């Protein structure tokens, strides 16, 4: 931030994140070595498990769908200068919205019920983000702390509701009854089977299309719309925004509402696309992965899709890897996520200075 | 409700509040110097693991404490390097540390002991036994940290400088005192205190490490820190209050209160978070963090 670093745009948007990701994987490789396993065979199992088979690829794309939504959620808030680490809580509440809509409107046909369920998810996710947004905008309470508190509030609330209110009376498990059949988002293998193409079965469902559409809409919003411009102005310079007649408070609330609604997509994919009921802890920490995805993807939808694919590979490949090399449990993926957040986020300046230094030397050598 | 139950509740409230208090004071030191620390949870977790592993390996709880503190300080220095030397985003660094800690402790624990991430059960000298009123030495050390923090921060030159660095680092720099040095020392103190918090969990309270055994205590400590408005004695009060809520949640389970009906445990569990949000919203009083908290110091501006 101090001395302006003279970097070409491609280096800034592609090279620096790529270097930090490579560095993250090297460190992860050292961790694998330290527990006495071979990082190269581990990488082989990881890639084989996630991309080597049609089934594995399906699961990879299923996880990618989750990460696109949470990554976009973090990114939209990030453009407004906000750090939304409440994706977990917002997705949890979105799951509640889905369950309330789907299990109360069972009489509706699928083509109405599915959109309503998605709207329910978006609305509840948005609400859970809007409150911290409002408190930040109007009362000055720090968004990071309030979204952390709202994550815990959401987890306590959902436990209460699933144990005491929403649970099926005969069931011992804290989960709702199954959603009506017509409200289940079709699996991709069923969709392809309907047009006569046989593809391997997996959890992958049509929500992937929704995620890609959401990424395109976010791109339009942030880079091609008046509102997106306002969001970026507030994010980079709130006082300039006021001078330009933009109300930062209003933009902060809007950005958080959008962010929470996007986080709700995680619940759509997991619950309407796969589990077909509301259950505890379906977010599995993916809300935090969204932070890694957004940082790695430089908060740009294209970058987020690529970063989501990478994390999809890690999650699916990691599951297969844990099966082949039991010492490397799936926690390894959490470690890699943490290192990527550290390198691509907090230590970003280190790599940027390194690259700038190299560029400067090259220039000198040429002169 | 007779005296016996009250004593039991008080006793378990004290036990439950000790890790919160140590972590809360850690956050207090760090944030008072201008380094926001949402990685309290991760440092506690790493300390809990290293503490249990050390106590098991050397057969001594004190060896565990030492290793736990070292591990926590090491993680704290990573946060310090990212946020002080590299002027990175302190929130991002904290999130990274929490994820790293959760993943690493589980993986290494599984690789070393093959028990799903747990350490082998600790017994005898490997644990902290009671020294006074059935509480271990750690309890008293952590309680003692409250007046020490209050005195050092409020009554010494080092403390004054450290607080100044959290409010107006440029002024401290102008006076010829190293902003970086002060912030690093605060981060190290925070690491030591988180070490106590984590080791208390795995070697004092429980008999060994369990994956994710901190279960959000680092965030409750953060809430307590806001509740205490970044001051030492109120931190003791806030942590004891949250410990009391936790202890009474166990006792009140299934108990019916007149006029309200049965109180769900979750309502009591939600209280610390809810109270923090309300306080931050400025409805009852106002919690204002140190002015330079979260902002990296750039010398040449």
Automatic annotation (TrEMBL), chain A:
Entry keyword Cell membrane: yes
InterPro entries xrefs: ABC_transp_permease (IPR001851)
UniProt keyword annotations, A-Z: Cell membrane, Membrane, Sugar transport, Transmembrane, Transmembrane helix, Transport
Entry's transmembrane regions: 14-35, 56-78, 110-131, 143-163, 204-222, 252-274, 286-313, 333-351
Organism: Microvirga lupini
GO molecular function: transmembrane transporter activity
Membrane disposition: Multi-pass membrane protein
Main location (coarse class): membrane
Compartments, record wording: Cell membrane
Gene Ontology cellular component annotations, sorted alphabetically: plasma membrane
Protein name, UniProt field: Simple sugar transport system permease protein
Alphabetical list of Pfam families matching this protein: BPD_transp_2
UniProtKB/TrEMBL annotation, chain B:
Keyword field contains Heme: no
Keyword flag Kinase: no
Record keywords: Cell membrane, Membrane, Sugar transport, Transmembrane, Transmembrane helix, Transport
Molecular-function annotations in GO: transmembrane transporter activity
Stated name of the protein: Simple sugar transport system permease protein
Signal peptide feature range: none
Membrane topology field: Multi-pass membrane protein
Transmembrane parts of this sequence: 12-30, 65-84, 91-113, 133-153, 184-203, 270-289
GO CC annotations, alphabetized: plasma membrane
Localization terms from the record: Cell membrane
Matching Pfam families: BPD_transp_2
Domain of life (superkingdom): Bacteria
InterPro entries listed in its UniProt record: ABC_transp_permease (IPR001851)
């Amino acid at each position: 931030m101090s001395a302006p670093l003279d970097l070409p745009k491609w280096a800034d948007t592609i090279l620096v994140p790529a270097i930090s990701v490579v560095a993250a994987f090297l460190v992860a490789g050292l961790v694998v070595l330290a527990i006495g396993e071979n990082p190269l065979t581990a990488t082989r199992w990881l890639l084989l498990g996630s991309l080597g088979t049609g089934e594995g690829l399906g699961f990879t794309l299923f996880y990618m769908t989750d990460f696109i939504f949470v990554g976009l959620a973090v990114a939209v808030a990030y453009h407004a200068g906000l750090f939304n680490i409440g994706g977990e809580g917002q997705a949890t509440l979105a799951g509640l919205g889905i369950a309330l809509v789907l299990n109360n409107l069972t009489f509706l046909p699928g083509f109405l019920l599915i959109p309503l369920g998605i709207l329910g998810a978006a609305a509840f996710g948005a609400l859970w983000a809007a409150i911290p947004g409002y408190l930040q905008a109007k009362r000055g309470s720090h968004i990071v702390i309030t979204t952390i508190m709202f994550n815990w509030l959401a987890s306590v609330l959902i436990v209460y509701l699933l144990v005491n209110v929403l649970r099926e009376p005969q069931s011992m498990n804290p989960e709702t009854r199954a959603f009506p059949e017509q409200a289940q988002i079709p699996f991709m293998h069923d969709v392809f089977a309907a047009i006569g193409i046989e593809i391997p079965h997996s959890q992958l469902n049509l929500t992937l299309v929704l995620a890609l559409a959401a990424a395109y809409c976010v791109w339009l919003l942030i880079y091609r719309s008046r509102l997106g411009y306002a969001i970026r102005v507030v994010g980079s310079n709130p006082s300039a925004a006021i001078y330009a007649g933009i109300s930062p408070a209003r933009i902060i609330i809007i950005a958080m509402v959008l962010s929470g609604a996007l986080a709700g997509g995680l619940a759509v994919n997991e619950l309407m696309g796969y589990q077909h009921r509301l259950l505890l802890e379906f977010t599995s920490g993916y809300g935090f992965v969204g932070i890694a995805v957004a940082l790695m993807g430089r908060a740009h939808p294209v970058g987020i899709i690529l970063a989501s694919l990478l994390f999809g590979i890690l999650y699916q490949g990691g599951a297969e890897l844990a099966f082949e090399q039991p010492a490397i449990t799936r926690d390894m993926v959490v470690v890699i996520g943490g290192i990527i957040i550290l390198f691509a986020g907090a230590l970003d300046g280190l790599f940027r200075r390194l690259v700038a230094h190299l560029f400067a030397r090259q220039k000198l050598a040429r002169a | 409700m007779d005296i016996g139950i009250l004593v039991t509740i008080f006793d378990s409230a004290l036990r439950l509040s000790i890790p919160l208090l140590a972590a809360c004071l850690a956050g207090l030191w760090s944030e008072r110097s201008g380094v926001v620390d949402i990685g309290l949870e991760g440092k506690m977790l790493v300390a809990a693991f290293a503490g249990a592993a050390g106590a098991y390996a050397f057969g001594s709880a004190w060896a565990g404490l030492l290793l736990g503190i070292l591990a926590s300080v090491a993680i704290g220095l990573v946060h310090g390097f990212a946020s002080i030397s590299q002027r990175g985003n302190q929130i991002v660094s904290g999130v990274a540390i929490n994820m790293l800690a959760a993943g690493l402790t589980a993986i290494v624990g599984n690789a070393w002991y093959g028990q799903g991430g747990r350490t082998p059960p600790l017994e005898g000298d490997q644990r902290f036994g009671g020294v006074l009123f059935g509480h271990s030495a750690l309890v008293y050390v952590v309680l003692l940290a409250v007046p020490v923090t209050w005195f050092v921060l409020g009554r010494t030159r080092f403390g004054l400088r450290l607080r100044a660095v959290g409010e107006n680092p440029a002024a401290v720099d102008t006076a010829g005192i190293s902003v970086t040095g002060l912030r690093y020392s605060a981060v190290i103190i925070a690491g030591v205190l988180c070490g106590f918090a984590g080791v208390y969990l795995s070697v004092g309270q429980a008999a060994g490490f369990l994956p994710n055994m901190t279960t959000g205590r680092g965030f409750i400590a953060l809430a307590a820190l806001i509740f205490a408005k970044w001051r030492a004695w109120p931190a003791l009060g806030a942590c004891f209050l949250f410990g009391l809520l936790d202890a009474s949640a166990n006792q009140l389970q299934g108990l019916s209160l007149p006029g309200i009906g049965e109180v769900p445990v979750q309502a009591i569990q939600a209280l610390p978070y809810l109270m923090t949000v309300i306080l931050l919203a400025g409805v009852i009083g106002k919690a204002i963090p140190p002015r330079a908290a979260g902002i990296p110091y750039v010398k040449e501006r």
